Amino acid sequence: MVVLSNIIGMLMIAGNILGLINSCLTVLGVITTCLAVVMVADYFIVKNRSEETAAEAVNWAGVITVVLGSFLAMSLQKIFPIAFITSTVISLILYPVLRKYVLKPQKGYVDSILKSEKM
Predict the structure, then answer these.
(1) What are the residue ranges spanned by the domains of the chain?
(2) Residue 51: pLDDT band by 50, 70, 90 thresholds?
């Protein structure tokens, strides 16, 4: 039984299974970090914690920030080896700029959908 376990372990090492798992966990960590930074930046920087605004159907600035931040962090991993820090910095800069100046929130979009469904 021990010999069979060693053979299976050697095959897993030869197939670079741990490298693939490590890559997958790195990508998931970077995406999760981008998503968390977008939520924190939206609450503390963009909305200033005091505004009560209606939610939109899709926050396109957040979607673009998560996709671009994750892609850039993984692309720059050879230059900046700690990818989640890179994704944090990119998302913290990119999201407020996109949300405040480029893709401003649509006012009343969800409210109009809700009113039309009630009728």
Answers:
(1) 27-118
(2) low
